[in-house]
Structures are given as structure tokens and as C-alpha cells.
Amino acid sequence: MTKTRVLTGITTTGTPHIGNYVGAIRPAIEASKSESNKSYYFLADLHALIKNHNPKEVHTSSLEVAATWMAMGLDTDKSVFYRQSDIPEIPQLAWILSCITAKGLMNRAHAYKASVAENIEKKSKDPDKSITMGLFSYPVLMAADILMFNADIVPVGKDQIQHLEMARDIALRFNHIYEELFTLPKEQIDDNGAVLKGLDGRKMSKSYNNTIPLFAPEKKLRKFINKIKTNSLPPEAPKDYNDCTLFEIYSAFADENDINEIKLKYEKGIGWGEMKSILFDLLNNHLKKPREKYMYLLENPKIVEDTLQKGAERARKEAATFLKKIKKATGLKSL
Ligand code: TRP
Predict the structure, then answer these.
(1) End-to-end distance of the chain based on CA atoms, in angstroms?
(2) CB-based contact 307:63 (threshold 8 Å)
(3) Nearest residue CA, atom 14 of ligand 1?
(4) Looking at residue 85, what DSSP letter applies?
């Protein structure tokens, strides 16, 4: 049986938060357990350089992201888990793809257009002010990530749909000009947890500074939960669990029976202090063991590095063989 190839990249900027876990990490780890899938998960550290020029932060984030996936139980023997910058075949493929990608296609990319719009709004003389070639050609590198392993399915957030369309466009163009080598990848949007709300009730996101770090130490976790915004109804007042951040986060971690019980408590009236303490207990029980493993891995980065090296070895084997074929199709071959 040919397996479905599932691939996704995680940009290594920042520390993973519970929104990342519920929206991306947990479903990816689940998918990797299915016998009908072969999964490729990687640290998109070349992409991180687009947004972050602080070497220390880029380096630390790679360790934190890798340790998170391992602590949460990714089976790194079963799936191919690697760091993008360990696979030199990827940027080589990105160049080949650049040479067949229309510049006009990149002009239409949302991230680039948003930066241009911001410059225009600020009345900059140059609409391309501070925009790097990295940002401009970001979708080509992402297409290379995906096409290098002929991924069938790419789990991503909604903001990445356009990048998947572009990857298909680029693949079609290569297949048309040269040889039918590339599979057309499909995005898989997970709507369930993707929109977990943060401390202030807006979408949990690094850019709003409203996140709950996945592995905050116990005391800090309690503090974060206490900071979650609620309305000012008194404890005995019946409450609406729809549109309540506390309930939403609770539901992302609890099983159905517990969720139903909490719904009843809301209807009868529950104090926010009590609900916060219930939520803390649930999260803390859930995260205690993985948090210990995470801390252990942060203190022993060699274990993480060795795991990534093993993954890179497997990924490179495939990438090198396929890149040879791709290059040959373009005329880059020995005489
Ligand atoms: N651009 C993606 C993001 O910001 C990360 C990423 C890089 C990625 N390369 C990828 C995702 C390849 C899926 C496939 O979320």
C-alpha cells in the first residue's frame, strides 16, 4: 500500500504556546500514528531567518520547538523529523524552482503585499522599504520544502492556503516544462483548535503577546490562567459557556463527560476563580509529565541534536536521490 505523505514545517521563532499545541502539534502527532501515513515534520529554520536576525533567539527557538515535539510524544523513528537547514538539497531545489516561477506570482503573495501596503500607508518613498528577497521569495522556499518530498497533504493554518496554491502552481509549471516529477500537494486546514483564544480574548498569537507558553512552570502557568480575561458577572450568576476563553481552553483538553459537567456548572453559576482553578488543574495534569521531559531535553540538547541528525540522514537520502532526478530533467547532469 502506498502511504499518504503528510508534511509540515514549523517556523522556529518564539516559544511554543498552547494554541500551537492544540492547533498544530497535537493533530500532527496524531496523524503520524496512522499506519496509512508517512509523516515529515521539520523545523523551518531557514524561514526563521526571514523574520528574525537575532542568532541567539533563532538558535534557542530551534531547541525549544524540537524539544516540544519530542516531549509531546512524536515518534521520531516512525516519522521523519529534521531541521530544514540540514538538508542542502532544499535550497538547491528552491533555486531551480525560482527559475521557473513568475515574479508576478510572488508580487501577489499576501505577506509581501501586506508589507508593501504598510510602506505605502506610512508614506515611504520606496514601497519595498525593508523588504528582503527572503520575504519576497518565501513561497518558493516553502514550495521546495513540500515538493522535495512529494507531499500529498500539508497541514497548515488558514494563512498558508495561498502558499499551497503557489506550490501547486510551481509544481505544475515544472511538470509542464520539464517532466512530470512533482505531486500536487493539498492543504489540510484544522479548524478545531486553530483559533484558540488568548489571555485577552483575541486569537492566541505571538504577535498579540497574549499566549500561554505550553511549558510554563507550574506557578507561572497558574499566573497566566489567572490573567485570562472574563466578564464581571458575580459567582452565582448563570454564565454562557459559548464565547468564554476559559471554557474554550478547557474543552481543548478535557474529554466529553468533563465538558458536559462544566457546561452544567456554567448554567447553574460558577465563580471565575473556581473555573480558573479547575482549568489550571486540568492543564497542569496534562502537561506535568511532558513538561518534565521538555526541561530534561533543554538541559540535554545533545539528545535533541542526535535525534535531528538521525532525521536529517533519512531525509537527505530521499532528497538527494530525488534532486538528482530533478536536476537531470533540467539538463544539469554529468557529461
Ligand atoms: N510558512 C509556514 C508557517 O509560517 C511554515 C512552513 C515553512 C511550512 N515551510 C513549510 C509549512 C512547508 C508547511 C510546509 O506556518
Answers:
(1) 38
(2) no
(3) 8
(4) G
Question: From residue 214, how far is each of 22, 193, 211 by CA, in Å?
Answer: 10, 14, 9
Q: How far is the CA of 9 from the centre of ligand 1 (A)?
A: 4
Ligand 1 atom with least separation from CA of 7:
14
Give the residues surrounding ligand 1 with Cβ less than 6 Å away: 7-9, 11, 44, 47, 142, 145-146, 154, 156, 160
Q: What is the pTM of this model?
A: 0.92
C-alpha cell at 250: 478547557
What are the start-end ranges of the H helices in the chain? 18-20, 26-33, 45-51, 55-71, 89-98, 103-107, 110-121, 133-147, 161-177, 218-227, 245-253, 256-268, 272-299, 301-330
One digit per residue, the tens of pLDDT, for the chain of length 335 reads 799 999 999 999 889 999 999 988 999 999 999 999 999 999 999 999 999 999 999 999 999 999 999 999 999 999 999 999 999 999 999 999 999 999 999 999 999 999 999 999 999 999 999 999 999 999 999 999 999 999 999 999 888 999 999 999 999 999 999 999 999 999 998 765 457 899 999 888 888 899 999 999 999 999 999 999 999 999 999 999 998 999 999 999 999 999 999 999 999 999 999 999 999 999 999 999 999 999 999 999 999 999 999 999 999 999 999 999 999 999 999 99
Nearest protein CA to atom 13 of ligand 1, as residue = 8
Q: Residue 49 has which C-alpha cell?
A: 531567518
Q: Rounded to 5 degrees, what are φ and ψ at 42?
A: -140, 155
Spell out the residues 6+ positions from residue 324 whose beta carbon is closer than 8 angstroms to its own.
Answer: none
